[in-house]
Write a structure and sequence with these properties.
639 residues; alpha+beta; 4-stranded antiparallel beta sheet; disordered N terminus
């Protein structure tokens, strides 16, 4: 074959490939075109809120394991009943259509269609060894999937989008793509959205696969696209509502939203649809952000201004704009393995088969149900859009839920416990101070928890809890009873801030105990000076300084003893100078302490002196003028 012939064949192949390519030619040039996106969205049929399945009931499709083997079950949330259970090897999430469901088989080697009403297998589509299933979705009577053929390119060989009949599995249409960098699809209302090259969201007609338009995410990767009743949404670090204004994917567009969240939250808005391994149920489903959008024209906001963080057994409702915690929920004992936002409720299922729902605005538990037997739940897909049960459960107080998280025995959640302590400290409830004091006395909490509680106690200045502070200080170390005084220094600091006289006797008791370490003694001394009860404090402070002034333990750091000396000087004033001078002049006193005490005496000397009349002031208090100046001032002016 001549070089010219090879060139003609290559040109023809490029022309044919370009006709179906989603990233070359005119379609690539028009990526981000707002008019194209508007026209594509206008073709979609309206999708009212509600379940996709034809029964109209909210449902959960549960992947089960355990002694009875791998199974798939359908549970009607509305009637609280199991519709069916079938043996099944599930290798990917269940997607729901009008009268059929679809899921990947083991290892993603096949796609399986099942009857929605019975769970019976309708069809199976096995993939060739050279094909890789990237993802799939369902829309009414259509199943759409993306595949990739093997190749030596960076992202593998070229991909394709395929439309199948949901009931038969028969191929309705196929669209070849010019890239292997393809993600899973989404479908709703007669439109199919396909991710390409981490920046394109290509819109196809569900009837024949014809391309209608393409959004171009300019400022962040588009790693997911979701089909919701309120519209298509895409993004990665935030969420774009797909509208003409977001066709070019700018974060400055009114259709972009991003929640402000605390540091312990992983900002995970949806799984990465370019990674097929994330399309199966996993730990990702237990630690993510749940959200829905409330469109206002082309402007988007999170519904009710909130997002929900699902963190294994805990759910937190946050104000998306301020990051303020609005509510919290603690699911006892067992992780919630899957969850979803229905628009008005947060639905979830635990690993032991407990189903629940929370009001998305208040966090109140509004629904409870349980699978029969003792199932082991690996994951679930909820087809429950608009589901809003109205249970009569009383809402738990935020302080109470946060307290339950702090004292939860599960040690996996140290970051969540520290967060809960910080949020508790913001609440005015009187029970919070008791919890913070309890943290300081507890064992086994993460180190950051103690520091967070200590800082919070000082900042709260909760004088109404004075009896609790005093009670905490009255706990002394007793080795026979395996009891240890905890955080005395923190309590002393709080006493200093509040000038809490009722705490002084308990602090003095600790100063006299031999197990009080030097840094704590220094904090106690500063607290006693701030409180100002000289009559009670001075004898204990003098006794401490006299006992330890020559102790070699303080040779390297005399600061605690110096702090005691400063407290004596502050409380006693002139009357304590002879005592401090005597200690400072005594050669048996540690040299470094002697210097520190002399410095204290020098600094306080002027302050201790009584006020003296100013020689330059007359008896009326006015500044006196020198005699000569006074004479000049009194002389009459010369003509």
């Amino acid at each position: 074959m001549t070089g010219a012939a090879r060139a003609r064949i290559a040109a023809l192949a490029a022309l044919v490939l370009g006709a179906g390519c989603a990233t070359t030619g005119e379609s690539a040039d028009r990526a981000g075109n707002a008019a194209d996106v508007a026209a594509a969205l206008a073709r979609a049929r309206p999708v009212p809120p509600g379940p996709v399945n034809g029964t109209g009931h909210a449902m959960a499709f549960l992947v089960l394991g355990g002694s009875d083997g791998a199974r798939l079950a359908a549970f009607d949330l509305t009637t609280r009943s199991t519709l069916w259970t079938r043996p099944a090897e599930i290798g990917g999430r269940v997607e729901v259509g009008a009268d059929a469901i679809v899921h990947a088989g083991r290892g993603g080697a096949s796609l399986v269609g099942r009857d929605l009403g019975s769970g019976a297998v309708l069809w199976q589509r096995a993939f060739d060894p050279g094909e890789r299933l990237l993802g799939y979705a369902a829309d009414d009577t259509l199943v759409v999937l993306t595949i990739q053929r093997s190749g030596a390119e960076l992202h593998g060989g070229p991909g394709a989008v395929i439309g199948l009949e949901a009931r038969s599995g028969a191929e309705r249409w196929r669209r070849e793509l010019g890239t292997g960098n393809v993600g899973a699809p989404a479908a709703r209302g007669g439109l199919v959205a396909v991710l390409e090259q981490s920046q394109y969201v290509t819109l196809l007609d569900a009837a024949d696969g014809h391309e209608l338009g393409r959004a171009l995410s300019n400022q962040e990767s588009a790693t997911f696209v979701r089909a919701l009743s309120e519209g298509f949404a895409f993004g990665s670090r935030g969420v774009f509502l797909l509208e003409p204004s977001t066709a070019a994917g700018s974060r400055q567009s009114p259709g972009y939203v991003q929640a402000r969240l605390p540091r312990f939250v992983r900002p995970f808005y949806h799984y990465d649809m370019y990674r097929p391994e994330q399309s199966d149920y996993s730990a990702i489903d237990r630690n993510r952000i749940l959200w829905r959008l409330a469109p206002e024209g082309e402007k988007a906001r999170f519904r009710s201004g909130l997002v929900t963080v699902h963190n294994y057994r805990f759910f937190f409702g946050f104000d998306a704009q301020s990051g303020e915690l609005r509510w919290a929920y603690n699911q006892p004992s067992v992780d919630a393995v899957s969850s979803d936002h229905t628009g008005r409720a947060i639905v979830f299922v635990t690993a032991d088969g407990q189903l629940g729902a929370l009001d998305a605005t208040t966090g109140r538990r509004v629904y409870s149900a349980a699978l029969p037997g003792s199932p082991s739940v690996r994951g679930a897909t909820f087809d429950a859009d608009g589901f809003a049960p109205d249970g009569a459960g009383e809402p738990a107080t935020l302080a109470g839920v946060l307290s339950s998280i702090v004292w939860d025995p599960d040690r996996r959640f140290s970051d969540v416990k520290v967060f809960a302590i910080g949020e508790m400290a913001k609440l005015p409830a009187s029970s919070v101070t008791a919890d913070l004091l309890k943290v300081l006395q507890a064992e086994g909490l993460p180190p950051d928890a103690y520091q967070k509680a200590a800082d919070a106690l000082v900042e709260r200045r909760d004088e109404s809890a004075m009896s609790q502070y005093v009670a905490a200080l009255k706990v002394h170390t007793d080795f026979a009873e395996d009891r240890h005084a905890q955080s005395v220094a923190t309590l002393a600091h709080a006493a200093a801030v509040m000038k809490a006289r009722p705490m002084a006797p308990a602090l003095i008791d600790h100063l006299r105990l031999p197990d009080t370490d030097p840094p704590t003694a220094a904090e106690i001394a500063r607290a006693l000076a701030a409180i100002g009860d000289a009559g009670a404090a001075l004898p204990a402070l003098r006794a401490y300084l006299s006992m330890y002034r020559a102790d070699p333990v303080f040779e390297g750091d005399p600061a605690p003893l110096a702090a005691v000396g400063d407290a004596i000087a502050s409380l006693g004033g002139v009357s304590e100078r002879p005592y401090l001078t005597e200690v400072a002049d005594d050669k048996s006193t540690l040299a470094a302490l002697r210097l520190a005490l002399k410095r204290t005496l020098a600094e306080t000397e002027e302050a201790d002196k009584p006020d003296k009349p100013d020689k330059d002031k007359d008896q009326d208090g006015d500044k006196a003028m020198p005699p000569s100046d006074a004479g000049k001032a009194a002389a009459p002016a010369k003509e």
